[in-house]
Amino acid sequence: MISSELIDDKLCPLKILLADDDKDDRFLFSLALDEISMPSNLVTFVDREKLMDYLFDNDEPFSGVVFIDMNMPRKGGLECLSEIKQTKKLKDLPLIIFSTSNSRDMIDKAFRNGADVYIQKPSDFSQLKQVIFHALPIAIEKMSSNSSLKYILNA
């Protein structure tokens, strides 16, 4: 369990966005987050366009963590990363890439485009909980320090 003491009062509950075209992956992510017992609000999106609409349509800048599936139809995670990083009100968001690939080239591209954390999607539910559990404190650190972070998490 992640201690809520790690989260500044203004971040609690932690807002988490997940863009993933796979319905099962969104469902398992939600279950894993529930089992971690992290005070959070999760909003899921089926594609990059819906995520970007959500981020741009809010008058207040989003303050939370964004998980992005690398391989989505039409425009994938790399385009999403670039678009977020080029937008003044969004550029400091902690961005976590979720991918089935562990290609070094893909990881390097994700970091060049603005990812803070790269997670290879685990095939086991307990490993999924573990990588989310470890990714969230990294994201919280990014939110509170605005520092540049680059982490690769594997289950």
Q: What are its keywords?
A:
single chain, 155 residues, Rossmann fold
Can you offer a commentary on this structure?
The longest helix is centred in the last third of the chain and has 21 residues, at 125-145. The protein has one domain (4-153): Rossmann fold, CATH 3.40.50. The chain is of the alpha/beta class and 155 residues long. It has a six-stranded parallel sheet with strand order 2-1-3-4-5-6, sandwiched between helices. The two termini are 17 Å apart. The model is unreliable at 1-7 (pLDDT under 50). The protein has helices at 23-36, 48-57, 77-85, 104-112, 125-145; strands at 14-19, 40-45, 65-69, 95-99, 117-120, 151-153. Helix 1 packs across helix 5. The relative contact order is 0.17. It contains five helices and six strands; from the N terminus they run βαβαβαβαβαβ. 41% of the residues lie in helices and 19% in strands. Strand 1, helix 1 (23-36) and strand 2 (40-45) form a beta-alpha-beta unit.
